[in-house]
Amino acid sequence: MKQVLLKGKQVVVEKVPSPVPQDKEVLVKTCCSVISSGTERAAVQGSAQGLVSKAITNPELVQKGLQIIREQGVKKAWQIIRGLEGTSSPLGYSLAGEVVSVGRGVTDINPGDLVACGGAQCAHHAEFVRVPRNLLAKVPPGVVLGEAAFTTLGAIAMQGLRRAALSFGETVVITGR
Description:
This protein is an alpha+beta fold and about 180 residues long. The chain has a single domain, classed as Medium-chain alcohol dehydrogenases, catalytic domain (Quinone Oxidoreductase, Chain A, domain 1, Alpha-Beta Complex). It is built from 6 helices and 8 strands. The protein has a 5-stranded antiparallel beta sheet with strand order 7-3-5-6-8. Strands 2-1-4 form a 3-stranded antiparallel beta sheet. A hairpin with a 2-residue loop joins strand 1 and strand 2 (about 10-15). The radius of gyration is 20 Å and the shape is globular. The mean pLDDT is about 85.
């Protein structure tokens, strides 16, 4: 199957093994996935940062690097840093699709059901995804899958309202870059 990955500084589409659902997981054939201009742009731009920029913006990484130098030496620390730069990571965290199969313990979702899925660890831009049962919901009849794919973004916005102790209907101003 094909999947979108961030590999070093490039966004690539590669063939990867198809996932298999484990206990309490669902295998979903992706119909629509959401490209988040903020989150994914930040991931791509973050991967393009040089080591110095990463160190300035992530002081905890510097501490971790110094610890590795103390425990394993400069050569090993450099190998780890260079290795991390070349790793690939999947992109995407919100999609909608059709259930292909379910793992043991999933009793309320069936193959053929249309679902909305969320989660940066699983709802990637890929032909098939393996999603824990608690990170998906059935799409109600009449809802277009292209719209259902935005469910995760709506949930994030609602969580922001809750954390800010706001109520639905209040007017707020959000600023930032």
